[in-house]
Amino acid sequence: MAFPIIIPLAIGVLVLAGCAKVATDVRNNRPLISLEGSEWSQIPIGPSEQFVAFKSNGEIIGHGGCNAFFGQYTQDGPTLTIGALASTKKMCRDVMESESAFMRNLQETRRIDATHLKLSLYNADDEALMHLRRRDWD
Fold first, then answer.
1. % helix / strand / coil in the chain, to the nearest 5?
2. H-only helix segments in 30-138
3. Which of 8, 41, 99, 111 is positioned for an S-S bond with 135, CB 3.0–4.6 A?
4. pTM higher than 0.90, yes or no?
5. Residue 68 phi, psi (nearest 5)
6. Which pLDDT does position 49 carry in this prediction?
7. What is the pLDDT of residues 23-75, one digit of tens each?
């Protein structure tokens, strides 16, 4: 009779599925100590996406929607300082204002709140500048 075996197996599968979801939720909400090696993006704008990547050598690179940019950053716990950003100089009529705001917000950042999937940037007055999502999570 297969019926008595099926019920314990079904219960076991449900328990394991619940544990996997809890483990994933804990990992996704766990504070991220370092931005090194991570990439973050805004919601896509048209055909281009705004993103920022924090490299392991203190280098920051990204795309503002029209132009690529690069510069340096330092992080000490939740304190983040982004230096002057240099960029290419293309003109994209529909995204220039959004690109300028994105890069300005990066440079005004003084504090972060980061988990595995979310990054919030705050200025010196502790006002939220941007909320980004993880681009390279895997």
1. 30, 35, 35
2. 96-108
3. 41
4. no
5. -80, 150
6. 83
7. 444 455 678 889 999 999 986 666 678 999 999 999 999 999 999 999 999 99
Contact by Cβ (8 Å): 96, 44: no
Cα–Cα dist 62/75, whole Å: 17
Residue 123 class from Cβ within 10 Å (0-12 exposed, 13-18 middle, 19+ buried)? middle
Alpha carbon 120 to its chain centroid, in Å, reads 8
8 Å CB contact between 98 and 106: no
Tell me how far apart the alpha carbons of residues 77 and 114 are, in angstroms, rounded to a whole number: 10
pLDDT tens sequence across 91-119? 998 889 999 999 999 999 999 999 989 99
Report the relative pairing of strands 79-82 and 51-54 from DSSP bridges: unpaired
Amino acid at site 64: G
Helix (H, G, I), strand (E, B) or coil at 75: strand
Query: Yes or no: is domain 32-134 CATH 2.40.128.270?
Result: yes
pLDDT at 86 over 70: yes
